[in-house]
User: Fold these one by one.
Assistant:
Number 1:
Amino acid sequence: PQAKPLVIVTRKLPDPVETRMMELFDVRLNLDDHPFTREELCQAMAEADVLVPTLTDRLDSTVLSHAGPSLRLIANFGVGVDHIDVASAHQRGLTVTNTPDVLTEDTADMAMALILAVPRRLVEGERLAREGNWTGWTPTFMLGHRISGKRLGIVGMGRIGQAVARRARGFGMAIHYHNRRRLHAATESALEATYWESLDQMLARMDVVSVHCPHTPATFHLLSARRLALLRPHAYVVNTARGEVIDENALVRMLSQGELAGAGLDVFEHEPAINPRLLKMDNVVLLPHMGSATVEARVDMGEKVLINIKAFIDGHRPPDRVLPGA
Ligand code: 8YV
């Protein structure tokens, strides 16, 4: 029988996923779950038939140049591939896959949780109660802002953006969106969403803005200092996509100057570092990249990785191929 392909996994994955992988392939796991150094990554590139990286691995063209003769597939654990130079991988004949769909609902839930938590001061209130600082109810105590009837501007109306739109509709928000391409009329009307071709014009009119586009060269600092300045001072910003899509310094500056009402951030420009000024603000909710952090999503993401590897090895086209520039 043919030797099983060597699959190198860069991080600890959920147990059922690792068990299944070990049944199917010759697997090298990261038992202590340490982040791979650049050297370890290059070494893995040189030895593996299939590499399973995550967002903590920077697969730039230099690292990719270490690909050994047997490496054919990079099956990313995660939907975002901004840590992989996909064009350079393709030039080297490497196939790249990701894990869409299975984390859509959970990430949208987290965005919705932030859309609720920030205007309603949920975490601030919880902190106050927990710290024993509640001196009693008064009519003007801990007032936040209503979200029903308010305008939600979704930046990036793909799978996750649309799932957020469905949720926010249920909370009585008016849905607006900006996207590279306008949705099909039927989808747009099912979501009761209003399209803005101009991101600038949309931003100037929203009460809450939630980011759901991937990080690409075209979306780096899409919410630049200039665009953030278009937001009204009562607006909230939510980001469960990638920190790089927002100019974080500009955002922090505006929050500290009262030019924005608050922010809910699950992602940051220099993860795991968080701008220390954010840590001191009461009107922000900060999460450590937890959008898809459910047992269910992570097991399903692992299952997707397996399906992609299996299809590839069996000579089929893997279902979740990522093409350069996609
Ligand atoms: C994961 C994510 O935490 O899929 C993504 O793009 O950001 C998260 O779901 C991460 O990718 C795991 O590698």
Note: The chain has a mean pLDDT of 97.
Number 2:
Amino acid sequence: MNISTSQQLFNRAQQSIPGGVNSPVRAFKSVGGTPLFINHAKGAYLYDADDNQYIDYIASWGPMILGHAYEPVVKAIQEQAVYSTSYGAPTELEIKMAELIKSMVPNVDLIRMVSSGTEACMSAIRVARGYTGRNKIIKFEGCYHGHADSFLVKAGSGVATFNIQTVPGVTAGVSTDTLTCAYNDLDAVEKLVEEHKGAIAAIIVEPVAGNMGCIIPQPGFLEGIRKICDADGIVFIFDEVMNGFRLALGGAQEKLGIDADIITYGKVIGAGMPVGAFGGKRHIMEVVSPLGNVYQAGTLSGNPIAMIAGYTLLSILKEQPQLLKELDDKTAYLKDGLDNVLKASGTPYVINHLGSMISIHFSDHPVTDFATAASANNELFKKYFHAMLNRGVYLPPSAFESWFLNNALTKEDLDHTIKATAESLKEIL
Ligand code: PMP
């Protein structure tokens, strides 16, 4: 595959942008090689600057759930753009967006729009602290909630990919208020809450984790945390930035049948525009300014282009619930096909899968938390990634990421991916 234009662009980018990228994992630093510079995308395909076509399993890390350049969304953005790209004043569209979300997801009485998943999670924590008058939070090792200081402790995604133990610039003062447990370890949560009784404002979790590969909550884990939160007055935050509007219309809360107190959103909610949101039960969200004194604001929050994009996509998902079902079926088909070729290869592997979240760990033991994800053969994953890329399949460049399927994928795309996996395994094992 000729990627000479991407190579030139990468050299040029590094002169002006740290590491040549505006978000670290894009640099392919951990897998090696040259990141592909994308020229355009349509449906399930990315086209790089040398016009190579790839089947896209990143989907902009989640948002493009119905495929790239999805026509109703493109049209809605174009129509709005002529009326200005931002007002910094309230619009009816923001009300419609809030009402639509409330009609789709449980436990959201009030919701505030922001511009990223990071902002949503950062604000949710502030609300929980303001509401409870407590300082400490519990997060889970390998979960990623964005790059706000409080979350960069034992974080997943790029922090895990680059094996950054302590992030310089995050003060010890902030980090001491972030307590961590292993994902799926309810006993550890119980112990930690007991040790810090009355001091914990919030427990934040990715209900289905996607930032250490895909990891499924074991039965009783989230239910148990719900009980602990109720008993000790702790705010239970579901970070649904990845899960929301993907696992079900009502997200992980609906899919798993568990109620959260605050829920954060990102990715799909903005259809590829910079959008996040945090919402929750009225008595908690009432602390948010200007109702209460928990200050939170944004020049571009509720931006009309971003709102119309998200509103259009969410409306379609709501009106045509078969779309998410189709996507789940495609993911299950892919899972079965990958299972067959991986089994045939004889290499130890684990596929974790729920709905349209899926990932492969080259592991001979179940992958249920960060430690088990980190002890998989991630060197083999790097080889697999490149072998797949050479066959026109663009996977996340790290075993510490979930794959993101989109509904524009055809059966032929999935079959190609399965065949490419069989060929890749032959090449790398
Ligand atoms: N939470 C989760 C679960 C995420 O996966 C991410 C991003 N991958 C974030 C929060 C942060 O979102 P953003 O990158 O939009 O700031």
Note: The longest helix spans residues 322-345.
Number 3:
Amino acid sequence: SIKAVIFDLDGVITDTAEYHFLAWKKLADDLDVPFDREFNEKLKGIGRMESLELILEKSGKTFSVEEKERLASRKNEHYRTLIQRITPDDLLPGIRGFIKEIKKEGIVTGLASASKNAPFVIKRLKIEDLLDTVVDATKVEKGKPDPEIFLTATKQLGVEPAKCVGVEDAKAGVQAIKRAGMFAVGIGDQNTLSEADWIVSAPAELSLHELYQRYQNSN
Ligand code: G6P
Ligand code: MG
């Protein structure tokens, strides 16, 4: 049965996916590059520089490495401004209860986030003690959809991937979970996250009871 649940951060535990969107939107507006929520879906779960590349592709211009680095830090400054005000009240509804329920059952928990800001955000949310391990972008070479980040978390927890569940709001994240050989829970749109084993529209719909059933039926 399930021995570990590994969570994505942005858009799963707290709504920082919205802050990433707002920060990229501001940068794209400054660059006169069209940017909307549909395009933003492609950036979810993807690292900072890769996201920037996707935006700059649409500008039709070329940028030097230095310019790209300057633009990436500008986006990060917008983002950092937005996350300063995060408090424990910004945990998405249901998520604290779900993690506590999991831990009560003796299941271990982990975080697998592509964000270099993840340690800051979990500190602001005061959830460090709910997570048995944390893997952020600074600890891995390859980003999602590569499974490396989830596999690193399973190793740190000492649990085989087949007994691990991953929870994600991004298509690239769900792909990373599946490639790691884990059970994937998608939070969000059915079409975007169709590769997940179980899809809910919000964390409030997560229940350990239903997770057990879905997991069992998939095996
Ligand atoms: C997460 C988010 C992405 C973000 C990435 C890098 O995966 O889903 O939208 O671009 O982290 O975040 P960072 O805070 O390092 O720029
Ligand atoms: Mg996410």
Note: The CA atoms of residues 120 and 179 lie 28 Å apart.
